[in-house]
């Protein structure tokens, strides 16, 4: 009888204890040796330049840890120096604001062709439903804009509309992530963080990147909208608004100003001595920088948040003096704060209109599922006058020449009403965003949804295309602005995105 064959002939040496231990020792030694070579940048692979997916050499900014917000050069001449993003949380309906569809009026109350038994986010759909608000031609361009936003309608000639934005998800949290970071998952850097990382700031007494939450609270994806992801933490947005100042900025009541200054001075001397002993300690330099910025902000933030310095006519233009609509007045203060931040050289301001649900669906944001007429009649006036005033104010002060204003939302809404309801369900297949200010054509309309506003069909613009265009206007090549993370050259636009050159002035 023949001996049974070894089922593991190639690994026979591992069955011998002495050989197994010998292989283990040499394996660990090899790992340690490779690590040492990597630390000294002597590995052959590291001499090969890492390229982006598009085959281009990445451009990573040279950042001094002690001065992370120092202004940095763009990749090429920029049209815009600063950005204000106005984010309507809850998915504002394009069909009730900026995307006029005569066929929706003509087919009102009838089934959508090809939409039999269509099921979307919350269930089955009913019939096609025209907007409860009339659309009228606005400005010299005659752009059709809804009566829901008449003040913004007056600015039709200053706006570049993109009616063919297409998303990836019909869920609010991932949708906010996608619009703010280019990814539906948590943990990726926001658009503002990428901008701050690339360009720094013109003002060293204020954060490079400020997020202004809605008076009603934060959006559903919360800090993901302005988070740094895997970028250095210094580049996350600093969140505060006109009603809620930066937390923990004031000194404790038990410590007087003289003691506070003396303590900071003593700490500064200790830090300087430590840096002199360890000049390569970048983490300490970054920490010192953040503390010094916080100290400067104790003076700069209260000053910039003091709206009493503004004229009565300016407050009235924004609607801050509207005693009958306190929510509108509160949002108006945030809009004025955004202008003041831009005026002081803050690079990126993210202004939110709408918050995570408080008090029920559609109460605190644009999520109009059940009774869109009642819900949007509240949200429209809150958004309209203050946002329009912000653009007018920027323009009359000459700031719009260097500032790009972005209006966006996480996705659009259906041309039908939901079955058994009087509101519209989620729709990422086609919706509207718009741009105004530095570097874009105006008045201008680009792309289109189908005759009912359901799907983007003409010159489709993905969110990655949208982001690529915004970075381009800032003088940044979206394919080359990267951060090496977990073995990948990460970027805002992932492995996609094309600049929409047709809208560039």
TrEMBL record:
| Segments traversing the membrane | none
The record's listing under PANTHER family reads: BLL7424 PROTEIN, DUF1501 DOMAIN-CONTAINING PROTEIN
Its recorded name reads: DUF1501 domain-containing protein
